[in-house]
Amino acid sequence: MIRIWAALLAGLLVTACAGGNRPAPRRAAPPRSAEPSQDASAVARDAARLGNWPVKIGKPYQVAGVTYYPADDRDYAEEGIASWYGPGFHAGNTANGETYDQDDITAAHRTLPMPSWVEVENLDNGRRLTVRINDRGPFARQRIIDLSRKSAQLLGVDRAGTARVRLRRIYPEGKPPLDAPTVIAAVPVPSVATVAVPTATNAATPGKSWLVQVAALADGGRVSWLTGYLASFGPVRTEAAPGGLTRIRLGPFASQADASAALAQVRAAGYGDARLIPPAGGR
Predict the structure, then answer these.
(1) What does the CA dihedral 160, 164, 169, 170 come to, rounded to 10 degrees?
(2) Which residues contact 143 (CB under 8 A, 6 or more apart)?
(3) Which tens digit of pLDDT belongs to each residue from 143-156?
(4) In a 3-state reduction of DSSP, which class is residue 169?
């Protein structure tokens, strides 16, 4: 019996010594959670800061020949395709007058009040996220929400570009009161202030006229939206560009002065990267 215990003790000592020179075994990484990190209290604070009520409901508006009717649908739920938008619109104006920040957890919806909140569930990976509606869109067929870049990253939509989602309207501070007032506010889409822009005329000589380059986008719905938005600034033209992009430009303008005046108005509206395109062949 003594020999048995001695043998066992020696075996334990050998094992301990052998293991002392090895790095500790790596633990298996825990499975990645399907839920993005989001502080529920932060959502509630955001709601309290902005105020759930009264809500603003825009009047009917038309984009690319389709009329949309905003409404305070308190039991809203829908399934469809989500897309996202970011760099081309960062620091521009949203439909409710905010400055768009692609790193905020927000989204664009065609008809829900602004602000309102929806829970977005990515049906492809199970992730869920609460986003605040502060803009209008998307206007591509079959898409039901346009996420900010940050929202798309948290939901795992940014790389794929689109995803199947389920939307459900929620209320961070509880259920809406039955007598909650609503305001039918003038929130047009596009929401453009009246501006004095020199008229671009067809009298401009082809190849000898100035243009204003506003953006180059890949998403057809955003192209339609921006084309409608810029209509109040003057004639809008679109051109195919490499990489599947579409250039969106204002013009033509007969002189550099007229084009520069239009450029100033476009930049004041939030499109800081807009620039002049001189006539072909130089100035």
Answers:
(1) -60
(2) 80, 81, 82, 83, 162, 221
(3) 999 999 999 999 99
(4) strand
CA-to-CA dists, residue 20 to 10, 11, 12, 25, angstroms: 15, 14, 12, 12
DSSP, res 99: B
Amino acid at 199: T
Q: Write out pLDDT tens, residues 149-184.
A: 999 999 999 888 889 999 999 998 766 655 444 444
To the nearest whole percent, how much of the chain has pLDDT over 90?
A: 31
Residue type, 141: R
Of the CATH numbers 3.30.465.10, 2.40.40.10, 3.30.565.10, 1.10.10.10, which one belongs to the domain with range 40-184?
2.40.40.10
- Beta strands, E only, 200-244: 210-217, 236-241
Radius of gyration of the chain (CA): 27
- Candidates 275, 273, 213, 276; CA nearest to 247 is 213
Residue with tokens 């800061």: 49
Q: Would you call 69 exposed, middle or buried from its count of C-beta atoms within 10 A (0-12, 13-18, 19+)?
A: exposed
Under CATH, which architecture does the 210-277 domain have? 2-Layer Sandwich (3.30)
